[in-house]
Amino acid sequence: MDVAFDAVGTDEVGRRGAACTRPDGAVVEIGLGVPSITITLQQLVGKQRSLLGSYAYSRAIFERAARELSEGVPGVERLVGAVVPLEEAASRLELLAYGTDRSLRVQLSPSGRCLPDSGPVRGGAS
Asked: Is the pLDDT of residue 125 over 60?
């Protein structure tokens, strides 16, 4: 694959991300599961892979967002442009990548539901 995103942030997931990307690919670390991970120089330099880090939220912000989602804060459903079943992830990401889907946020849901008792999957703009 071209890019592997590690949203977990553990040693095992980081190593797997590096192992499954093609030469000239990239591993993007966005998870903060542990303070450090081990990726060898051979995995990076030997295959000309890039290792990138991206930080967006603190643990406190993430915990607040999770609490508000689980408590059903009014209006939070407007933040999600579409909810799609997990098996449609690849096709939805393709629509987003090629600009045919203008959703700002798409939630992938194994259960087909967005928020507790919010109803079935919504297709959003496609």
From this structure: no
For residues 92 and 87, what is the distance between their CA atoms, to the nearest angstrom? Answer: 10
Q: Using alpha carbons only, what angle is made at residue 97 by residues 108 and 107, rounded to the nearest 5 degrees?
A: 15
pTM of the model: 0.46
CA 8 to chain centre: 10
Between CA 60 and CA 47 the distance in angstroms is 37
pLDDT at 118 over 60: no
Give the separation between CA 23 and CA 47, rounded to whole angstroms.
5
Buried b (16+ CB within 10 A) or exposed e, 17-26: bbeebeeebb
